[in-house]
Structure formats: C-alpha cells, structure tokens
Design a protein that fits this description.
Oligomer: single chain
Strand order of the largest sheet: 3-4-2-1-5-6-7
Helix content: 25-40%
Shape: globular
CATH superfamily of the largest domain: Succinyl-CoA synthetase domains
CATH topology of the largest domain: Rossmann fold
Number of strands: 14
Order of helices and strands: EHEEEHEHEHEEEEHEHEHEHEH
Strand content: 15-25%
Structural class: alpha/beta
CATH class of the largest domain: Alpha Beta
Number of helices: 9
CATH architecture of the largest domain: 3-Layer(aba) Sandwich
Largest sheet: 7 strands, mixed
Amino acid sequence: MSVLVGKGTKVLVQGLGREGRFHAARMVEYGTKVVAATKPGAGGTTVDGIPLFDTVARAVEATGANTSILFVPAAFAMDAMLEAIDADLELIVAITEGAPVADLAKVAAVLATSRSTLIGPNCPGVISPGKAKVGIMPAENFTEGQIGFVSRSGTLTYEIADLLSAAGLGQSTCIGIGGDPIIGTPTLEAVRLLNEDPDTEAIVVVGEIGGSAEERAAEYLRAFAKKPAVAFIAGRSAPEGKRMGHAGAIVSGNSGTAASKVAAFEAAGIPVANAPSEIPGLVRKALGGR
C-alpha cells in the first residue's frame, strides 16, 4: 500500500495559474488523476483538459475529488485551505510559500476537528513512486521501493531521493512536510504514518534546525519503532538567532539546535548521517546489509 496518496487519489487544483498549470501537467504525465480545478467565475470551462469549477464543494460533488493541491498566493492561502477542509477533502497539499503564521494558526485550529490531513504549507508535496505524485518534486529522482522518507527541506528531498535511487534503494512514500513554524503534519505524525505502513521497511528522517519536531519524532521511534530509521539534520553550521531558508529554521539559545536533535536520535539508537551522501550506506546497514 502507499501512504496518503495512491492509485485512488483524485486531485483538485486550487490555483490553476502558470505554476499550477505547469505542475498539474507534470502530475498528469506521472499518472496522477487530476480531475478538477477551481477558478471563481470560470465554472463550466476547461483549461488544459481540466474541468473548472467556481468552488471546491462543487468540484468535489461533480468529480469525487478527494485531494487538493494549493498554488494560490500567500494572502489567499488560509481561505483556500479552509475551503478545502470544509469540503471534507481527505488530503490537502499546500505548496504556497509565505503564508502568515497567524493565518496558519487559524487553519490549525479548524484542522484539529476535521478529517482532513494537511501537508505544508511551503512544501514540495507527497509522492508514492509508481502510484501517484501530488506536488512539485521532479519525478525522475524517485523510484519505487520500500524506503519511507520524511523531510522538512524540499531541495534535500530531491537530492536524497536521487541518492537512494542511485543506490538501488527505492522509496515507498516521500513526504515533504515543509519548514514553516506551523505546518499541518509535523515530523512525528509523518513518521508515524510510515512506521505503520506495511510496505515501508525503513524510514529516513531529514530534519533541520529550529523547533523540537525532530526530538519528538526520535522519542516516538525510541518507544514504538517497528522498523529501522536513519536521520540527517541540516543547518549544523547556522549561527544562533539567524533564520536559514525556512521560517521555522531558527535557533534560539539551546532550543532547536542541531546538537540537541542529533543527540535525541542517537539516544533512540538511530544513526545520524553527517552528510546526505552517507544516507544510502546507513540505510543499507540498518537493513542488515541488503
């Protein structure tokens, strides 16, 4: 099976502008079912063969869409996410970068009492190689296999997937969760999904400085791991108090340091790579040399 996305995924695109059209076409090329898009006032027309609807609710009713992907500007991201949650979509992938933290806090409060799963915002999305891609990741970097992968960094997601693929270590599902301070699915929850997936044999956790998400994931794996894991922490050389790339990648005092995250994983018996290039070898070792 796959995690979050698969052959039964039916995607609705919220924001079919230039970026949305480009990535919708790439998803269709990959075999993902893109069944609808929303554009107020354009309902009843099509773009690139994709039917347009005025609202998410109408799109879901007409097409059976169960997943949405957002390419809307940051100022409208909250309304788009809330509309998707209100339509009871199973999965919402928010690619949008720069959404205000106050807006995301409101979304999180609504999300907590819904049945929707939100990935992102400011994320590359989700891919189950050979089954479905809902996001902006380059498909050629990924191959089908049994390695589950969680990452806060989009670029590192592509790089490490390519390294794993080159080493013959295909992936079951890769979840790019995003690096903002408030995200829909934190590292711990993404790790839990892969830990419970019978087709995932090992888990790669790619974290970065800032927050305590990796420490919580390490504690969870220490207590409940069903399969081996390998970790990598980006941003080890970042100076204190300086944001590095992601809004959530900022160290304050002893909180969110690379050292604390590395120590948490090592205490859980999880090897930590010093560089992305070490990850495939550590995964093979964790799998007993396979």
